[in-house]
Design a protein that fits this description.
3-stranded antiparallel β-sheet, globular, about 120 residues, about 10% strand, single chain, alpha+beta, 3 strands, Arc Repressor Mutant, subunit A
Length: about 120
């Protein structure tokens, strides 16, 4: 069995925190959108169909974890990804779950995923 040095335990705790934040579907979708561009709350709500109370709650979790940061422009609050590790992990998830080799049917379109 491999034993983690003291720094490794801290790294494991950081990784666990990041994975826990990504483990919620709405938060993952939010981060996927923010990985493409900075967006305001109303744009996120329109794109993802996540209603304001839930959207604000999930953005608050991401902000508390240091994964996103904000800036205000007039009445709008814009969000963007603030953690390079989160962006790197999103890229891996995108490659594993969103890019389909030629000829493959995306998961959302394969028969077992159609209601």
């Amino acid at each position: 069995m491999r034993h983690w040095p003291a720094a490794g335990a801290g790294a494991a705790a950081s990784a666990t925190g990041l994975l826990r934040a990504l483990a919620h579907e709405d938060r993952l979708l939010l981060l996927c959108q923010l990985s493409q561009e900075e967006l305001c709350v109303s744009d996120l709500e329109a794109r993802l169909k996540i209603y304001q109370p839930s959207l604000s709650q999930q953005l608050g979790v991401l902000r508390k974890q240091g994964l996103v940061t904000t800036r205000r422009e007039g009445k709008h609050i814009f969000y963007r990804i603030a953690d390079a590790r989160a962006l790197a992990l999103l890229q891996v998830l995108y490659q594993q779950f969103c890019i389909q080799p030629e000829g493959d049917t995306p998961l959302a379109q394969s028969p077992e995923y159609i209601d």
